[in-house]
Amino acid sequence: GAGVSQSPSNKVTEKGKDVELRCDPISGHTALYWYRQSLGQGLEFLIYFQGNSAPDKSGLPSDRFSAERTGGSVSTLTIQRTQQEDSAVYLCASSIQAGSETQYFGPGTRLLVL
Amino acid sequence: AQSVTQLGSHVSVSEGALVLLRCNYSSSVPPYLFWYVQYPNQGLQLLLKYTTGATLVKGINGFEAEFKKSETSFHLTKPSAHMSDAAEYFCAVSDREDNNDMRFGAGTRLTVKP
Q: A69: which of A22, A49, B37, B63 lies 20 to 30 Å off by Cα?
């Protein structure tokens, strides 16, 4: 079946602009995770959803970052007033349920803030 | 493509005992290797990583892992388990410098008995 998909695959934006990144999880997966991956680094956890609720928002680096999930499926990560340090690969993952299952990662969105 | 095998989906140790979580990888090029931990209802958190240099890598919370090329292994150890170590542990491998193609193992759930 289809895996986790993300769009766009690449995004170039100017500093100060807002961007929206989309994630379509695997059908039936109730948990959805957002991560950020900077060059040469491992995954940095941002936020996760169980259903439509986000029990853990501790990883969001600033109030410019927000995420929502509707219908227990698609999620959108929004970065307002982007900064150059926001440049990274943003990965989405989903799992059958939170905490006990392997996370399946999407291909990521590569964001470049000029 | 690279892949990871974690031996044992569940490991149970007594508090104070040695923790050993096994990970073997497959990669056609020198790998980057990672261990992530996931506490209940939280996202993945990087424990440690090997990229180049010293093959014994020390991470947070007293964990360490040794890269053994001849055995294609990257086992995670901790001399003395604490109750707070109970979590799911994921080994991951990447064969690209930007880690944009990271593959995770199925995970090992560690239980610590009092």
A: B37
Contact A48 B109 (CB under 8 A): no
Q: How far apart are alpha carbons B100 and A108 in whole angstroms?
A: 8
**How far A55 CA sits from the closest chain B CA (Å)?**
8
User: Residue holding tokens 């491992």?
Assistant: A42
Chain B residues with beta carbon closer than 8 angstroms to that of A43: 36, 44, 46, 102
Q: Which amino acid is at A23?
A: C
CB of B59 within 8 Å of any CB in chain A?
no
- CB–CB of B44 and A103 under 8 A? yes
Q: Are A112 and A87 in contact, with CB atoms under 8 Å apart?
A: yes
Residue B69 is given by DSSP the state G
Residue B28, Cβ neighbours under 10 Å: how many? Answer: 8
Task: Print pLDDT tens along chain B (114 aa).
Answer: 667 899 888 999 999 999 999 999 988 777 888 898 877 756 567 788 888 888 999 998 999 999 999 999 999 999 999 999 999 898 988 765 444 456 777 788 899 999
Residues 6+ apart with CB under 8 A from B84: B61
Chain A: residue whose CA lies nearest to B107: A102
Euclidean distance between CA atoms A98 and B109, whole angstroms? 13
Residue type, B25: Y
Examine residue A55 and say whether the peptide bond preceding it is cis (omega within 30 degrees of 0).
no
Residue B72: half-sphere exposure toward Cβ, Cα within 13 Å: 14
Give the separation between CA A86 and CA A74, rounded to whole angstroms. 22
